[in-house]
Amino acid sequence: MAPSTRSxxxxxxDEEDWFAxxxxxxxxxxxxxxxxxxxxLLRPLTRGDPAALDLLDDAAVLPSRPGYDLVITxxxxxxxxxxxxxxxxxxxxxxxxxxNLSDLAAKAAEPYGYFLAVGWPSGADVAxxxxxxxxxxxxxxxxxISLLGGDTVTTSGxxxxxxxxxxxxxxxxxxxxxxxKPGDRLMVSGTIGDGWLGLLAQWGEVMxxxxxxxxxxxxxxxxxxxxxxxxxxxxxxxxxxxxxLADSSHIAKASxxxxxxxxxxxxxSPGAQAWLxxxxxxxxxxxxxxxxxxxxxxxxxxxxxxxxxxxxAAAAAGVKVSEIGEFxxxxxxxxxxxxxxxxxSRLGWLHG
Length: 352
Prior knowledge:
- Mg(2+) 2 binds at residues 75, 103.
- ATP binds at residues 150-151, 177, 241.
- The protein is α+β, with helices and mostly antiparallel strands.
- It has two domains: 21-170, CATH 3.30.1330.10; 185-342, PurM-like C-terminal domain (Phosphoribosyl-aminoimidazole Synthetase, Chain A, domain 2, Alpha-Beta Complex).
- Helices cover 31% and strands 23% of the residues.
- A hairpin with a 2-residue loop joins β10 (332-337) and β11 (340-342).
- α2 (89-106) packs parallel to α3 (126-143), α4 packs across α5 (212-218) and α6 (227-233) packs antiparallel against α10 (307-316).
- It is globular, with a radius of gyration of 22 Å.
């Protein structure tokens, strides 16, 4: 995240520029509630991390970690685009952190902390801020990450939230998208399609009797526990955010080879399987599940001699991984079903 030109202290004004208390010119008067907002809602999110400097300074001071690289990722979400305008704000906060944590998981990085930016609509009340902060606190504790700094502003538009997460990977050991070779196996964690079906359930377009698919969409589970297994066995990886087919193709492109996905071997949850059983065309149904996105699983390339060991190591970390294809000579992505080549009608989400 590009820091503000003035500060990384969490503050907000109705003006375009904002200042730390000790930087404010004599004519600038901070809103009466602003420092209370920082102290009461945001400072607890630092969880006492000394790097955050209690959110009293214009920047965070990060420690070095000998033998490790600092891995940085950033995501932004806009109301009405990435979540419904009436979504609970604690859910929004948690999903913001979890989507970024998924990016760190794909790099086999150990999460450390985050910077936050929020553009609050001008009518946002204190209760909204409290709810948002509560979600951050819950997942900050769950994933052992601390707020290190950031910025808040007021906007005439919709709510905009952005987080920049930091993590540590052994020096030179972050798992990149490039690294797959022809002959490597394509493997994926968890199940595929639940996030997309959860979005449809939120729109009322599919049945979700127990709410499992909606939970997967609203609160994805970043595969941070796969870190050690991936460091040993994965050669290239990505998280499944745009869609399994699309994200597999990203690995193939970065690695200079082609990936073939076996649609028959997609790992499906009971809910996704029940939905698929109702579809008139199995292949198209499977393509929909493999291109829907929002699963936040890890898809990776593994040497065929390491595939079994990766399964065992992943299971020890509480995650099931499945072999769903292979990398071959060529470029792009292709799919097949029961031995028959299939041309996917779509791969996943495209970013504008």
